[in-house]
Design brief:
single chain; Rossmann fold; two-stranded antiparallel sheet; 11 strands; globular; 7-stranded mixed β-sheet; alpha/beta
Length: about 230
Amino acid sequence: MAKVLAVLSSGYKDEKNEYETGWWGEELFAPLQALEKAGHQVDLASPQGGKPTVDKVSFLPEYDPEGTYKALYESGRADETKKLSDINPSDYDVVLIVGGHGAMYDLAKNDHLHSIINSVYDNGGIVAAECHGPAPLIWTLRPDGKSIIAGKEVTGYPNEIEPEGLLDILPFSLENELTKIAIYDKGDLSKKGHAVWAEEQIVTSRDPFSSELMGEELVKALEKRK
């Protein structure tokens, strides 16, 4: 059994622009279900601990047609998270950064998260990030001062499918920042699901519809490590 730390945004509210965001339902629950079904343990953490803010858009019928992820959320499965500052990275084989636009605000430049990512990586574990979740990888610096994904192939949420006008208020463009330091691959947008292994320890996925694929990729990778 592997131990997985799923990291969620605590949430962000922009009153000026009447915008509130957080973590994305499917991006936690789809991989979590796959990992737990395979016998692995999944713990949750966020910057502030406690109950983090979910992006309610993720439970709309277009994203959650069967209400599967909404039901999991309402069951209380994500009501309690540990504080990132209280996490011992050596306890975990995988760190999974869950997407949602909240990751752009309170995860991207979070020093506690950067330390966890580096420690899991140095211990031979897997670093995984979904959708907007690769944002923290950009600012996770290695001993040589370069990003952990510098020069490596990654994916993440592309500009062209960001909601209209949102790029104007987000703190940065994920695609633009990834492109500066890594080899950005958005894949074929007409096809559902896209994940990229930069190497055997780093995997990123593109969008909410890649969440099940991320779960499958992690389960397969952990099976190989047995």
